[in-house]
């Protein structure tokens, strides 16, 4: 556990990607099995101990530290695990040896809700502050230390000089602590046999088009739909649904698990039935409707009936055991079109190719499609193979320009992680009428990106200087500052007082110069709703 | 007879001693100021008269020309030295005694006595040993006006030996690189250098130009710092395997490009919190502070055992809560301009 704690600690302070890779690689090479496998699972967020939640830790702390002092500390530090590791009362003497990662994993797995509050302190008492931080991060999941799963897998590839694509291919079919993966990578054994297990293939991704113009002879255009990108995999009769990050979301969409009539790996957009996207012929509801279904572990019959999901297919990677990823897009497209006849309409359709005379014509079509709440266009090189990741020049995404409004800063909240102790999350509002005629501001959204570090400092200072009220980590501020807020779309919402919810709002510009009464009114925002 | 302690009045920009018509650490120019120490958020130029320790006055002469004659030979800002332990009588029958605060060279607490009432204002202080300044002394009083820069229980500064060991290990592990230590130019920098010397590090230490004069001043006041060299006089290869000390603002500045593959370190109490280190792009955080940590703050209040605690600046909410839990009377003064020191 000491080595793992030291690794986490140095990773936190290292900004260089290469140095992070080198440090993880060194750890993986020098640490014995199964510790390194568990550590890798922790770094990639694959561990889950249901008996230990963030609230378990908070409750342990509240028995040991005054609740007010705990809250003030947590608020300043910005991370529960770190605050707890610092505030945990040091035992008079550390009894017992420092446990290994594997022993910690065994102990955590054996816990239930009743035993956790009794057993966890015993483990914490055997560790120093760094060790406690590592343990709590490990136990509660979600390291949030700036290491992506992809980076950890790349480090594995680098440690043992194998290709990261291969690592990713095996990854999703294996389980922590990945003995087969280390037997292959570290000890030169045979590659793991994953042929009969459903597994995720890394997605092919696109670059933003920016100022590039492409020749439509070389590139085909498709709509970019506003749902979530998914991969539907059927192997040996068993179907799984994976999200863009490779998470298994099968349980959330059970209606898609018994509709694929053959073994295949298909790439598409998950949408729910409705009338907004693509109009009559499209038959998909807005992202807002889809959102009601995301993140659910169990799904009621009612919701299955009200918002049934389907997949609008973009691409095929494997069809009936045939791996066609090396083939050009045009051939895969033809294979997909041929496959459509065998798929049930109830759960599948195909994302149509957008025909245009030339690039200028395509630009006009894209402009005109704003009202259909389509995210934009995809441009795919007709000869591109299906390659994991983002390779320059093969696929482009050509999103709509964002919508913009001017809104007024109303509340600010302290951030976490790198922004701990800074007021970095901003709630902003628009006027519910004429501001000179006594109108009030209603909150319409919250943004925490789109500004530089220097601007963050300035905003933080403004928040501290203009505070009206404090509610825990939130400060209400005087209405003095206008943000130009960019967002992708806006929808009706029952959750907010304004009746609106913005999609992906971010600060576009800080209008230090603009008087607050010139900010936009709710009605201008409401006019942009496309539900 | 006026109400108890009405002779001492906290304002947002300083604490006023009413009968003496003077201010402690005022944030703007006044006729008469008592200054606890030389940091810019406590000391400033332009006061008619400045009462401070000889060391603090030397620092203020360097930074603000306090007590220094102008072109015409006049001294527009008078400097009145007060030694540690010395009591001076101010107008309005107020006695002021300067007592070591252990914060930086020349730093003092000020004990004020008037009409049988005793008030101590700590300025900034710490309880840990520091080879560059005289140690803090506990002085009993009725009102204890304390700082609270690190007034949260998460702040416990580790023994400085541990932090020095981290620093020298990083140096030993990377003989072809350099370690750039960000440290406040007054106090922290000299303490880090003196502690390195005490740990047996006798190699030359390189300085950012902004550090030079203050280091010389410390040496003139009896704090030996060993061989110091200026970065500007040397090439990259000279500095490989060396420690370089610079103000925190220089860490991510273009200036640091002239250094041989620097590992960025920072000596500050804030480094206890990972997020703070990450905000600064610090790779080697050194938890070294010239302020009292949570244990020292609370221990000191218990030892002084005043009737009332006033908290001047920092994380005052938590310290007030601690006082409330211990049934001590306390209030926050919220002085302006003193956020986030110790950098």
TrEMBL record, chain A:
Query: What reaction does this catalyse?
Result: ATP + (deoxyribonucleotide)n-3'-hydroxyl + 5'-phospho-(deoxyribonucleotide)m = (deoxyribonucleotide)n+m + AMP + diphosphate
Q: Is DNA damage there in the keyword field?
A: yes
| UniProt keyword list | ATP-binding, Cell cycle, Cell division, DNA damage, DNA recombination, DNA repair, DNA replication, Ligase, Magnesium, Metal-binding, Nucleotide-binding
Alphabetical list of InterPro entries matching this protein = ATP-dep_DNA_ligase, ATP_dep_DNA_lig_pp_1105_fam, DNA_ligase_ATP-dep_C, DNA_ligase_ATP-dep_cent, DNA_ligase_ATP-dep_CS, DNA_ligase_ATP-dep_N, DNA_ligase_N_sf, NA-bd_OB-fold
What are the recorded GO MF terms, alphabetically? DNA ligase (ATP) activity
All copies of the ATP-dependent DNA ligase family profile domain together span 302-432
Q: What class of enzyme is it?
A: ligase
**EC numbers:** 6.5.1.1
In Swiss-Prot or TrEMBL terms, this protein is called DNA ligase (ATP)
What is the scientific name of the source organism?
A: Erythrobacter rubeus
Automatic annotation (TrEMBL), chain B:
Gene Ontology MF annotations: exonuclease activity; ligase activity
EC primary class = hydrolase
Q: What is its EC number?
A: 3.1.-.-
Classification via InterPro entries: MBL, Metallo-B-lactamas, Rhodanese-like_dom, RibonucZ/Hydroxyglut_hydro, Xnuc_lig_assoc
Which Pfam family, just one, is annotated for this protein? Lactamase_B
Domain annotation Rhodanese: ranges: 139-223
Q: Which UniProt keywords apply?
A: Exonuclease, Hydrolase, Ligase, Nuclease
Q: Does the keyword Hydrolase apply?
A: yes
SMART domains the record matches: Lactamase_B (SM00849)
Q: Determine the domain of life of the protein's source.
A: Bacteria
Coiled-coil ranges per the record? Answer: none
Q: PANTHER family, alphabetically?
A: BLL1145 PROTEIN, CLEAVAGE AND POLYADENYLATION SPECIFICITY FACTOR FAMILY MEMBER
Q: Which NCBIfam families match?
A: Xnuc_lig_assoc (TIGR04122)
What name has this protein been given in UniProt? Ligase-associated DNA damage response exonuclease
* Organism of derivation: Erythrobacter rubeus
């Amino acid at each position: 556990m000491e080595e793992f704690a030291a690794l986490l600690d140095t990773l936190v302070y290292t900004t260089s990607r290469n140095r992070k890779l080198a440090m993880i690689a060194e750890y993986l090479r020098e640490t014995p099995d199964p510790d390194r496998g568990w550590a890798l699972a922790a770094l990639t967020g694959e561990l889950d101990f249901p008996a230990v939640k963030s609230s378990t830790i908070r409750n342990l702390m509240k028995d040991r530290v005054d609740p007010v002092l705990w809250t003030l500390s947590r608020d300043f530090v910005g991370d529960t695990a770190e605050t707890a590791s610092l505030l945990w009362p040091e035992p008079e003497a550390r009894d017992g040896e420092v446990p290994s990662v594997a022993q910690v994993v065994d102990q955590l797995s054996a816990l239930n809700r009743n035993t956790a509050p009794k057993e966890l302190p015993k483990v914490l008492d055997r560790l120093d502050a760094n060790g406690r931080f590592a343990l709590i991060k490990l136990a509660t999941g979600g390291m949030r230390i700036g290491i992506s799963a992809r980076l950890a897998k790349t480090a594995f590839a680098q440690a043992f000089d194998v290709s990261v694509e291969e690592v990713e291919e095996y990854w999703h079919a294996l389980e922590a602590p990945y003995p087969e993966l280390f037997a292959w990578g570290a000890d030169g054994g045979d590659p793991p046999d994953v042929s009969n297990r459903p597994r995720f293939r890394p997605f092919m991704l696109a670059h933003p088009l920016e100022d590039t113009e492409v020749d439509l002879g070389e590139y085909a255009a498709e709509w970019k739909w506003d749902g979530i990108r998914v991969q539907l995999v059927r192997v040996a009769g068993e179907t799984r649904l994976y999200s863009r990050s490779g998470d298994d979301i099968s349980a959330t969409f059970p209606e898609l698990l018994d509709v694929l009539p053959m073994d295949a790996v298909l790439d598409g957009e998950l949408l729910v039935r409705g009338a907004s996207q693509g109009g009559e012929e499209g038959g998909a509801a807005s992202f807002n409707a889809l959102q009601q279904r995301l993140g659910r572990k169990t799904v009621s019959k009612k919701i299955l009936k009200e918002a049934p999901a389907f997949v609008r297919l973009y691409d095929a990677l494997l069809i009936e055991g045939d791996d066609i990823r090396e083939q050009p897009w045009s051939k895969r497209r033809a294979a997909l079109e041929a496959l459509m006849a065998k798929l049930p309409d109830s759960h599948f359709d195909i994302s149509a190719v957008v025909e245009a005379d030339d690039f200028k014509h395509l630009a006009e079509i894209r402009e005109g499609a704003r009202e259909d709440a389509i995210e934009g266009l995809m441009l795919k090189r007709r000869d591109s193979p299906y390659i994991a990741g983002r390779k320059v020049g093969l696929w482009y995404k050509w999103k709509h320009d964002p919508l913009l409004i001017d809104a007024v800063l109303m509340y600010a909240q302290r951030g976490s992680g790198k922004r701990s102790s800074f007021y970095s999350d901003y709630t902003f509002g628009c006027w519910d009428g004429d501001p000179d005629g006594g109108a009030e501001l209603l909150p319409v959204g919250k943004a925490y990106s789109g500004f530089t570090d220097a601007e963050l400092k300035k905003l933080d200072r403004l928040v501290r200087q203009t505070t009206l009220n404090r509610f825990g980590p939130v400060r209400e501020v005087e209405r003095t500052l206008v943000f130009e807020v960019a967002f992708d779309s806006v929808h009706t919402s029952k959750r907010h007082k304004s009746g609106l919810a913005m999609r992906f709002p971010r600060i576009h510009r800080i209008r230090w110069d603009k008087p607050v009464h010139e900010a936009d009114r709710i009605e201008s925002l409401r006019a942009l709703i496309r539900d | 007879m006026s109400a108890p302690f009405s002779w001492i009045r906290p304002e947002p920009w300083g604490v006023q001693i009413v009968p003496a018509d003077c201010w402690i650490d005022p944030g703007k120019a006044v006729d008469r100021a008592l200054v606890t120490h030389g940091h810019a958020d406590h000391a400033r130029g332009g006061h008619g008269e400045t009462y401070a320790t000889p060391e603090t006055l030397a620092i203020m002469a360097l930074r603000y020309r306090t007590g220094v004659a102008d072109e015409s030979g006049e001294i527009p800002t008078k400097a009145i030295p007060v030694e540690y332990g010395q009591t001076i009588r101010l107008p309005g029958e107020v006695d002021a005694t300067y007592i070591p605060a252990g914060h930086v060279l020349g730093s003092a607490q000020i004990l004020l006595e008037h009409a049988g009432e005793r008030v101590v204002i700590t300025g900034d202080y710490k309880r840990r040993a520091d080879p560059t300044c005289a140690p803090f002394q506990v002085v009993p009083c009725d009102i204890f006006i304390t700082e609270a820069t690190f007034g949260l229980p998460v702040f416990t500064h580790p023994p400085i030996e541990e932090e020095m060991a981290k620093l020298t290990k990083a140096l030993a592990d990377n003989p072809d690189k350099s370690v750039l230590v960000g440290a406040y130019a007054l106090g922290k920098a000299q303490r880090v250098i003196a502690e390195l010397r005490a740990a047996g590090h006798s190699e030359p230490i390189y300085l950012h130009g902004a550090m030079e004069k203050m280091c010389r001043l410390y040496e003139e006041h009896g704090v030996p710092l060993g061989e110091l060299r200026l970065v500007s006089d040397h090439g990259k290869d000279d500095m490989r395997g060396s420690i370089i000390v610079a103000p925190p603002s220089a860490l991510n500045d273009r200036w640091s490009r002239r250094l041989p593959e620097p590992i960025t370190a920072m000596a500050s109490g804030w480094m206890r919190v990972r997020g703070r280190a990450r905000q600064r792009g610090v790779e080697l955080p050194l938890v070294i502070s010239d302020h009292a940590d949570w244990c020292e703050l609370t221990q000191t209040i218990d030892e002084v055992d005043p009737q009332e605690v006033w908290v001047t600046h920092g994380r005052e909410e938590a310290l007030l809560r601690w006082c409330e839990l211990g049934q001590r009377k306390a209030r926050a003064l919220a002085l302006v301009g003193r956020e986030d020191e110790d950098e």
